[in-house]
Write a structure and sequence with these properties.
The complex is a heterodimer of chains A (about 300) and B (about 350). By secondary structure, chain A is mainly alpha-helical. Helices cover about 75% and strands about 5% of the residues of chain A. Chain A has one domain. Chain A starts with a helix and ends in a 12-residue tail after the last helix. Helices cover about 70% and strands about 0% of the residues of chain B. Chain B has helices at about 5-35, 35-60, 70-85, 90-110, 115-135, 165-190, 190-200, 215-240, 250-265, 270-285, 290-305, 310-325, 340-350, and strands spanning about 155, 160-165. Chain B has a two-stranded antiparallel ribbon with strand order 1-2. Chains A and B meet through α3, α4, α9 and α11 of A and α5, α9 and α11 of B.
Chain lengths: ~300, ~350
């Protein structure tokens, strides 16, 4: 095989597939990192919200609602759910002495429940919705599935949109202010309680959106969140907890490492490499690649 | 001023005594009826209680949440299984598991203790996950199937010997090992070392000012917890005759955390009660539905939110009052070694 062939038929498709997975991971990690950066809450049930989004897309899609409408509808439906979880579960333990541990435990319990509920409602079998954009396109002699190209573009748009809202708008400034100093923000007229609930709901809604987008590629099953959340946590840690750009860079970097490493070694060993990277980062640079939202 | 720590540990010991009596009663009943199933289930609950005990030592005393304690449990189980297949000796298997987890937890501790709080939780989670994946993919360790065919051993004590195949005999041995680990932990927590741990949880910033090394205390607690988990894990292949990578998975670590929270964080005996309670709940709920996670998850969440001290935390104050009425607690001396305990005490009452 000539080097050009290798590039065209092995390396490039692998890089693009890794990019699609990277965008997927970034979408899930984005909500996780925003919730941590703003509220100081480790949401262990984030993967389950991602699963809820995917199942909602599956069920509503089967009921005849089109994919394009679902992209808007599911995230909106997730907002009241996120608000309710924040009010009923996070708020009561928000001011305990060890907030990290307590909220981690509460959301861990919630994750267990959601997983089992999904199993009861939808069954334990793996399902897969039809691909909304079939076919493939040839770019520079590289054949790429259309849906993956779409996913990469939409993912980039979502990340840019979120970053714009958080860093450039008045709403984002209020959210960052509330994260930086709750009391000062409150005395300047920021509705802190609403901002907290809204931020959590926003993170949950992003997870739901990721679920809708990824269901056609990675199929839908009750424990789908559990497998994905590990990678998302790794991305959040390596990128720096609470940093949006950190999540983007780390997400793309780690999935490329995974994709390219699997060309050289057996794919089953790429997971230890990715987790090993997380451990190495925690040891040598616990704050991650970038600083933290609202704190830098 | 009463030393509340000694007082509450005394209440825990009373609960431990009740536990042993109940277990002995169960063993006698099981032996009389010739039961195998419930005794085996009880033995398994006890083995996982050892894992929960190690989680409670970290979470309840040094204040560090480990989400990957199953790592050491799994290492103990695998090393014990490998040793038993070479040479079926109980003591050799326990010694090998002890050494292996000692080394593993020193390495793990060097990594994990560089960070704290939520990062500690995630790093322990990551470490366990990496190791579980490695075991899962190693053909020599049986890969995803695990290892089967571990021989049933005779456990000798001088002239006497008990077979691990005998439900009652092995139940009693596991009971002795786990309660021995409980007693050892309780004893160590009552030494100045234990008080430094308590002080760490109460206020980590003040501990260095009193001349104690935070790192050394955290490291000691981590290694101790690792070894306790490893020794409990070493018993597993003797009971079931196989080991599988599931022993290292997050579900195992998660169950230990659930046991500790249900039973009561920072009570030691609560971890053991919680573990037994979890097994009972699972088999009761499991008898009419396979969806037991909903009920356990709900109970767990309610416990975290409304009962942060767990079941033992509810019962124990009453026992403490009863004990102190019977026998007044000693007054804490103003010895420098007691200072951390006094700080912990003030931190607790002023909260």
């Amino acid at each position: 095989m000539t080097p050009v062939d290798y590039l065209q038929f092995v390396l490039a498709p692998q890089v693009v597939n890794g990019l699609a997975l990277g965008v997927a991971v970034v979408l899930v990690a984005l909500g996780l990192t925003i919730i941590f950066g703003m509220l100081d809450v480790i949401n262990m049930s984030h993967g389950e919200f991602y699963a809820i989004g995917a199942y909602a897309a599956l069920a509503l899609g089967a009921a005849g609602i089109g994919f394009w409408f679902l992209l808007v509808l599911v995230p909106i439906l997730m907002i009241p759910l996120g608000m309710a979880v924040e009010r009923l579960l996070i708020r009561p333990v928000f001011d305990t002495r060890d907030r990290h541990v307590t909220t981690l435990l509460v959301t861990f319990g919630l994750g267990l429940i959601v997983e089992d509920v999904l199993k009861i409602v939808f069954g334990a079998n793996t399902q897969r919705p039809p691909t909304p954009i079939p076919g493939a396109t040839e770019i520079l002699g590289i054949i790429l599935p259309n849906y993956r190209i779409f996913l990469i573009l939409v993912g980039a748009a979502i990340v840019l949109g979120v970053a714009f809202v958080v860093y450039k708008t008045r709403l984002g400034a209020m959210v960052r202010a509330a994260a930086f100093d709750r009391n000062m923000a409150a005395s300047l007229g920021v509705p802190v309680s609403l901002v907290y609930a809204g931020t959590f709901a926003f993170g949950v809604s992003l997870a739901g959106l990721a679920g809708v987008l990824l269901a056609p590629i990675y199929s839908v099953f009750p424990t789908m969140g559990r497998d994905f959340i590990l990678l998302a946590f790794t991305v959040v840690i390596v990128g720096g907890m609470g940093s949006i750009w950190g999540a983007v860079v780390a997400g793309l970097l780690l999935t490329q490492v995974q994709a390219l490493a699997s060309l050289v070694i057996s794919p089953v060993w790429t997971d230890p490499i990715v987790f090993g990277t997380m451990v190495a980062f925690l040891v040598f640079r616990p704050q991650g690649l970038f600083g933290r939202l609202g704190h830098a | 001023m009463h030393d509340r720590l000694t007082q509450s540990m005394r209440a825990s010991h009373l609960l431990a005594l009740l536990f042993v009596l109940a277990a002995l009663g169960l063993a006698a009943m099981g032996a009389a009826t010739g039961d195998t199933f419930y005794l085996r289930l009880g033995t398994e609950a006890l083995i996982f209680a050892g894992l929960a005990l190690s989680v409670d030592l970290l979470l309840g005393y040094s204040g560090a949440l480990s989400l990957g304690q199953a790592l050491y449990f799994g290492i103990g189980a695998y090393v014990s299984a490998l040793t038993l297949m070479k040479l079926p000796s109980f003591w050799l298997a326990m010694a090998a598991a002890f050494l292996a987890t000692l080394i593993a937890s020193i390495i793990g501790g060097l990594i994990a203790n560089r960070v704290r709080g939520v990062y500690f939780a995630l790093i322990t989670f990551g470490l366990a996950q990496v190791m579980a994946k490695v075991v899962y993919n190693t053909r020599e360790l049986g890969a995803s199937d695990g290892m089967i065919g571990i021989p049933v051993i005779e456990i000798g004590f001088g002239p006497f010997s008990v077979s691990a195949g005998s439900p009652v005999g092995f139940f009693l041995i596991v009971l002795a090992v786990i309660m021995g680990l409980y007693a050892l932990t309780a004893y160590l927590l009552d030494t100045p070392f234990g008080r430094v741990l308590t002080a760490l949880k109460a206020n980590e910033k003040r501990v260095p000012f009193l001349g104690y090394s935070v790192w050394r205390a955290r490291m000691a607690a981590y290694v101790l917890a690792g070894v306790i988990a490893g020794l409990s894990g070493a018993l597993y292949p003797m009971l079931r005759g196989f080991v599988s990578p599931e022993l290292m998975f997050f579900a195992t670590s998660g169950n230990a955390v659930i046991s500790v929270v249900l039973g009561g964080v920072g009570t030691l005996i609560g971890a053991i009660y919680g573990s037994v309670l979890l097994v009972i709940l699972k088999s009761i709920i499991g008898s009419w539905t396979e969806h037991h996670l909903i009920v356990i998850g709900l109970l767990f969440m309610l416990c975290v939110m409304f009962l942060p001290r767990g079941l033992v935390g509810v019962v124990r104050p009453a026992i403490e009052t009863w004990l102190s009425r019977r026998r007044p607690a000693p007054v804490a001396a103003a010895d420098p070694a007691d200072l951390p305990a006094i700080i912990a005490e003030t931190a607790r009452t002023s909260r």
